[in-house]
Amino acid sequence: MQLKEKEFQQMVSTASDRSPVAKNCTLAFLVGGAVCTLGQGLGNFYGNFGWGEAIAKPMVSITLIFLAVLLTALGWFDKIAKHAGAGTLVPITGFANAVASPAIEFKSEGYVMGMGAKMFIIAGPVIVYGTVASVIYGVIYWITTLF
Fold first, then answer.
1. Are 92 and 120 in contact (CB under 8 A)?
2. What distance in Å separates the CA atoms of residue 93 and residue 76, rounded to the nearest whole number?
3. Each residue's pLDDT tens digit, 11-31
4. What percent of the chain is helix, strand and coil (3-state, nearest 5)?
5. First-to-last CA distance in the chain?
6. 37-70 burial string, b = 16+ CB within 10 Å, else e?
7. CA 132 to CA 140: how far, in whole Å?
8. N or C: which end of the chain has fewer CB within 10 A?
9. Of residues 69, 84, 72, 68, the one with CA closest to residue 31
10. 106-139 pLDDT, tens per residue?
11. CA–CA separation, 143 vs 40, rounded Å?
């Protein structure tokens, strides 16, 4: 039996549940905003701690990475992400989770062939395509500044 594309789309639409788009967007906005607010609060805290901006900014990144990895290790990051969706993908926390999750999952296979080999299985393509995109952008920027 061969289905036509229209018939297949009809079957898919009747079988799948409607996604609560407004709710998902609202939760993603609130959680992403909360992560960013936490980052700003940490920046203010470290700034008031007597550290200059040159030290406070990296400390914010380090703290957010640590918290994301800790929540991943405790299994809480996935529970938060289940409800918050894209809000947990604020770049630094989402990237930390993407590196930590496979490392924790494959630790039982050993440090080299398990953790080391699988650590960048998710984050690796992000790094590669991010680097390629930045090089392409840099070349385009360089060419446009010549004229």
1. no
2. 13
3. 777 777 777 888 888 998 999
4. 85, 0, 15
5. 60
6. ebbeebbeebbeeeeeeeebbebbeebbbebbbe
7. 12
8. N
9. 84
10. 777 777 777 777 777 777 787 888 899 999 999 9
11. 36
Hey, what are 81's tokens? Answer: 């992400």
Distances (CA, A) of 101 to 26, 74, 135, 147: 26, 11, 28, 47
E-strand ranges in 40-142 read none
Of the candidates 20, 44, 40, 55, the residue with the CA atom closest to the CA atom of residue 90: 40
Q: What radius of gyration do the chain's Cα atoms show?
A: 21
Residue type for position 77: F
Structure-token pair, residue 119: 């650590």
At residue 71, what is the residue type?
Answer: L
DSSP 44-104: HHHHHTT--HHHHHHHHHHHHHHHHHHHHHHTHHHHHHHHHGGGGG-HHHHHHHHHHHHHH
